[in-house]
Design brief:
Layout: H1 18-32, E1 37-43, H2 49-62, E2 66-71, E3 74-75, E4 78-79, H3 83-95, H4 97-104, H5 108-111, H6 134-149, E5 155-160, H7 167-179, E6 185-192, H8 202-211, E7 215-219, H9 225-236, H10 242-252, H11 256-267, H12 278-287, H13 291-303, E8 307-308, H14 309-316, H15 320-332, E9 336-338, E10 344-347, H16 350-358, H17 362-378, H18 385-398, H19 402-418, H20 422-436, H21 441-446, H22 470-484, H23 487-501, H24 507-523, H25 530-540, H26 547-563, H27 567-583, H28 586-602, H29 606-623, H30 626-642, H31 646-663, H32 666-682, H33 686-699, H34 704-719, H35 723-737, H36 744-760, H37 764-777, H38 784-800, H39 811-824, H40 830-846, H41 852-863, H42 868-885, H43 888-908, H44 911-923, H45 939-942, H46 947-957, H47 962-969, H48 973-987, H49 992-1002
Parallel strand pairs: 1-6, 1-7, 2-5, 5-6
Antiparallel strand pairs: 3-4, 8-10, 9-10
Length: 1014
């Protein structure tokens, strides 16, 4: 028999887990090397997850790391939004106040949604009314905050009990695991694996984490017999008998928590009387407490994961001395423990709490929740301010009192929306709809619209005097579902709402729901959403101006800009701007003006449209309107690129990257990267373009920006002769865009690439078939920027295959179709005009009637465009045409053109063009490099510069414009431009400043004062 010893319910000796600890220490070492680590620990209840984390946290702190712990908080059956992150950030603020303040600087208002204390230092700013990217922005800013805090010191963020996590917490954790890139940071989370049934909400997250190679998984197993023996010895402070170890090991099956309970029970002499149920074992220990302590334990079990002492005192209604005695008994029995902050109590293990909670009677449970709610209403300071509204709503809901629960749940839904916790907002609104019919009429009549969902519910009514309606709840829930990704639920809500509105004759509200339905159908890949928008437009037609009316018009104009730009879209955008101004809807007006400007550019009113878009860009920056900043820095550069002003586009896109990254606009940033890749491709900065395209694929939450990146990578691969790679990227673009919502800006570039890849593989008839499909579908007005490359690609394919017998059948008719398309497409911008000349020249080549004069015009058009690859291609064609004539002057000019083309193609890595140029030069017996010069030759001669080009370079180096050069050398500005382009090609530089720098470095004009540094 064992001598009397002090028993402990927690072993002072840490048992086993050597492999798991080694993994954890390895993650800490990698994080210390500025490689952020993500880790998830799973295991059944009681297996020892918390003890493992505590052991690791202690060791990490000894090595100088800062450890921030956060647990998912349960209130009854509800989880608090972002609770573990709020707790962890609060711990970081205590440990690293200066570092966290510096990391949050400028974004305090957004981050205060997670850490309300930051709101004290945030400057007041008008909130965005409609914020599609609000939740994603909060997530991005949180990730960047953690990276900055962990820039110079290792930080461990540990989140426990993920199985209780609310949806917003799960989404944020998944985002962190996907996007953390830098910092000495470890993020780990624990969850109870035996709770994860097939429909558990954590299950999809775990499946996603399994696919992420950056996340390590640890599954914590049970102890073996030897480990159980060491654990018992630690608890009893003495070596146990082998028979006792065998019995406890068999009954506990190696579960660490049950080993503790059984060891203590055996020591206290109650082992023989144990029932077969381990749950009953847990309750036996509670039932041994004094009645007052048992009552306190039952109250704590229903109060949540943790219950504050003052709240507990208010609910138990015990005298303070009696309450303290009851708590002392529960703590001494290791049923309850004090919280680390010392302001409340919790169960030592959640299994005990669940056993006590499950033992409550239904009426007893609702009564306890009522007592909690009444105490909290009487004194709101009993709980932390950031938890008050959510906990009150939960208590009243579980008290089954609709009159009290409905207003409380609606208040909580507002709090959830303001924290961007849209999943919890949706859950609360669905509870409100559930409670609606049960709540007394006078309670419902006293309710007012508690929040605004985009442009709903004003609709001509005064929210201050109009009672809340069931439809208002449905409107809130529809938007919350859309924003949190629960689109199926949101779609069902809109369907029910529209069914109710059939009998009410409320066209504005019906139109609003049809707009929501349109967005949801597009997001769910069920269609393009135009039919729903058409219904909304019919409903508002003829009605007085309102925000809903303006929103319908603006949404329809935005849809048309992407799908069917033209006069009707311009008219809708103009009316949207007018109506939005009349009703003071600033954000709708700015978005509509941005749409209108883009449509005007596409319609050929280029300067007027650009001025409109620049004005919007300036206004949203001045007013800090986050929701429009991203779109303004995507659409305006896109319009500039579409008319050939790629340099201007790149400048704006670089500004857009800075702003979207600072504001956490992740999806907008992805669009900016996609557009930047396109503009850099045009400018011949191909390596930078490839990097931007990959960033577009990796950055966004939605798929379409990644499709733009894949499109650019396909163009680049095709130009470099990597046809199989181009086909792969084209397939990725198709997958990103889908088939449910076709848009010219997606479909036409893919058609262009399909034609190019088919031609490159020698499949002329496939190339012709794709072009024929595009021509048959037609090019809507305003799509010429995408249409010209398609027609050009088809013309090039036909010209290259003009001698092939297989190409002859149907060739004449097809070339005429291409010519007809050229006649119909707009040429209102210099780039479009250049494309027209190039396409017509290729059609002449296909008919074997292209001349040097034809191609000279094309070369001249592209020399002013700043698009080196396009210029190199048409120079190659001009050289080909000159060599077909065969005169000495023509051969000399062709030689210069081929040298320039070959230099550009080699620099870009455009292997097919470089090979074609070399092959043409070889056939014509031309040298692509100038003959070697003697050492005494002038440096300019070694560069292959003619005397005239040296004169031009001297003036370029002096800072002269083309017009000034022309006047001084008695040549035309066009000829001066040609000479400048030739010089840039021979020097292998991309601009006049670089050419001046080369001239200075080589001492070409020592007596001159050069302007390269000006």
């Amino acid at each position: 028999m064992l001598a009397p010893v002090e028993s402990r319910s927690v072993s002072p000796v840490f048992v086993g887990r050597a492999a798991e600890l080694e993994t954890l220490h390895d993650t800490l070492a990698q994080a210390a090397a500025d490689d952020p680590q993500a880790l998830v620990i799973g295991g059944e209840a009681g297996v020892g997850k918390t003890r493992l984390v505590e052991e690791f946290a202690t060791a990490a702190a000894r090595e100088g790391a800062v450890v921030a712990l956060g647990g998912c908080v349960e209130i009854g059956a509800d989880g608090l939004p972002f609770a573990p992150f709020s707790t962890a950030l609060r711990a970081l603020r205590r440990e690293l106040p200066e570092e966290l303040a510096a990391a949050a600087a400028g974004q305090e208002e957004e981050l205060a949604r997670l850490l309300p204390e930051l709101a004290d230092t945030a400057p007041a700013r008008r909130p965005d009314r409609s914020d599609e990217e609000g939740m994603a922005r909060l997530f991005e800013l949180t990730a960047r905050l953690l990276e900055r805090v962990a820039a110079h010191r290792t930080v461990v963020v540990a989140l426990e009990d993920l199985h209780w996590a609310d949806a917003s917490t799960r989404h944020l954790l998944a985002y962190l695991f996907r996007t953390l890139r830098t910092g000495r940071l470890v993020v780990l989370a624990t969850y109870r694996s035996d709770d994860i049934h097939r429909r558990h909400p954590l299950r999809p997250l775990l499946a996603e984490l399994d696919r992420l190679r950056t996340v390590r998984r640890i599954e914590l197993g049970r102890f073996n017999r030897a480990e159980v023996g060491r654990q018992i010895a630690g608890i009893l402070a003495a070596e146990p008998a082998p028979a006792q170890v065998d019995e406890i090991f068999e009954r506990s099956d190696g579960n660490a928590f049950f080993v503790e309970e059984l060891a203590v029970a055996a020591h206290e002499g109650s082992c023989a009387g144990l029932t077969d149920s381990l749950r009953d074992l847990l309750l036996v220990r509670v039932e041994r407490l004094p009645e007052s302590a048992q009552r306190v334990a039952r109250i704590v079990a229903e109060g949540g994961s943790t219950v504050e002492y003052r709240l507990l005192a208010a609910v138990t209604r015990l005298a303070e001395d009696d309450l303290i005695e009851a708590l002392r008994a529960a703590v001494n029995a290791n049923i309850l423990i004090a919280t680390p902050a010392g302001d409340g109590y919790r169960f030592r293990h959640s299994l005990v709490r669940e056993a006590v909670g499950d033992d409550l009677l239904p009426g007893e449970r609702s009564r306890l929740n009522r007592h909690y709610a009444e105490a909290l209403e009487a004194d709101p300071t009993l709980v932390p301010a950031d938890q008050r509204v959510m906990r009150l709503a939960s208590y009243w809901y579980h008290a089954h009192d609709p009159a009290k629960a409905l207003p409380a749940v609606l208040d909580a839904s507002v709090t959830a929306r303001r924290r961007h916790a849209h999943s919890e907002q949706l859950r609360l609104l669905e509870r409100a709809m559930e409670l609606w019919d049960s709540a007394p009429e006078d309670i419902r009549a006293a309710l007012r619209p508690v929040d605004y969902t985009e442009v709903y519910p004003p609709c001509g009514c005064d929210p201050a005097t109009t009672p809340l309606r069931y439809l208002d709840l449905m409107a809130e829930a529809a938007v919350a579902g859309r924003l949190c990704g629960e689109r199926e639920r949101a779609l069902k809500i809109t369907k029910r709402a529209l069914h109710l509105l059939e009998e009410e004759g409320d066209p504005l509200r019906a139109a609003w729901f049809w707009v929501q339905r349109s967005r949801l159908i597009q997001a769910l890949a069920r269609g393009d959403g135009w039919q729903e928008l058409g219904t909304a437009q019919q409903l508002v037609r003829g009605l007085p101006p309102s925000e809903v009316h303006a929103e319908v018009l603006a949404t329809a104009a935005g849809w048309s800009m992407l799908h069917n730009p033209g006069p009707e879209a311009v008219s809708a955008a103009e009316r949207a701007v007018e109506y939005a101004r009349m009703v003071g809807a600033e954000d709708i007006e700015l978005n509509a003006r941005l749409t209108l400007g883009g449509l005007m550019v596409d319609a050929g009113q280029i300067e007027t449209g650009l001025a409109q878009m620049y004005e919007v860009r300036d206004e949203v920056l001045a007013r800090g309107l986050t929701a429009v900043v991203g779109r303004s820095h995507v659409n305006l550069p896109s319009s500039l690129e579409g008319i050939g002003r790629s340099e201007d586009s790149v400048g704006l896109l670089q500004e857009g990257l800075r702003l979207t990254q600072k504001m956490g606009l992740r999806d907008s940033e992805a669009w900016v990267w996609a557009n930047l890749a396109e503009s850099l491709l045009s400018l011949g900065r191909w390596d930078e373009a490839a990097e931007a395209a990959v960033n577009a694929q990796r950055t966004g939450q939605s798929a379409k920006p990644g499709g733009g990146g894949s499109n650019s990578l396909a163009r680049l691969a095709l130009a470099r002769g990597e046809v199989a790679e181009a086909v792969r990227h084209l397939a990725a673009a198709r997958a990103s865009y889908g088939t449910h919502d076709p848009m010219p800006q997606n479909n036409l570039p893919m058609s262009c690439l399909t034609i190019g890849t088919a031609a490159a593989e020698g499949r002329l008839l496939d190339a012709r078939a794709e072009a024929d499909r595009a021509l048959s579908a037609g090019f809507p007005p305003g799509t010429q920027r995408y249409a010209w490359p398609v027609v050009l690609a088809a013309a090039v394919s036909e010209a290259d295959a003009r001698a092939l017998p297989a190409a002859q059948d149907g060739r004449t008719a097809f070339l005429e179709r291409l010519s007809e398309a050229c006649r119909k497409l707009t040429t209102g911008a210099p780039l479009w005009l250049a494309y027209e000349k190039w396409t017509r020249a290729e059609l002449d080549r296909a008919r074997s009637r292209a001349t040097p004069d034809t191609w000279s015009d094309v070369v001249t058009a592209f020399e002013a465009m700043g698009r080196p690859y396009d210029l190199a291609q048409v120079r190659h064609r001009l050289a080909e045409a000159l060599l077909a004539i065969g005169g000495d002057d023509e051969r000399a000019r062709a030689t210069e053109l081929l040298r320039l083309t070959h230099a550009t193609a080699t620099h870009l890595g455009a292997r097919p063009l470089a090979d074609a140029t070399a092959h043409l030069a070889q056939r014509a017996r031309l040298a692509l490099t100038a003959a070697p010069h003697s050492p005494s030759a002038h440096p300019a001669e070694s560069l292959g510069l003619t005397t005239r080009e040296r004169d031009v370079l001297r003036l370029v180096s002096a800072g002269r414009t083309n017009r000034q050069i022309a006047e001084e050398l008695f040549i035309s500005p066009k000829t001066a431009s040609v000479h400048v382009s030739n010089i840039l090609g021979k020097l292998g530089v991309s601009g006049r400043g670089e050419a001046a720098a080369v001239a200075h470095r080589l001492g070409l004009f020592p007596a001159e004062t050069l302007a390269y540094g000006s």
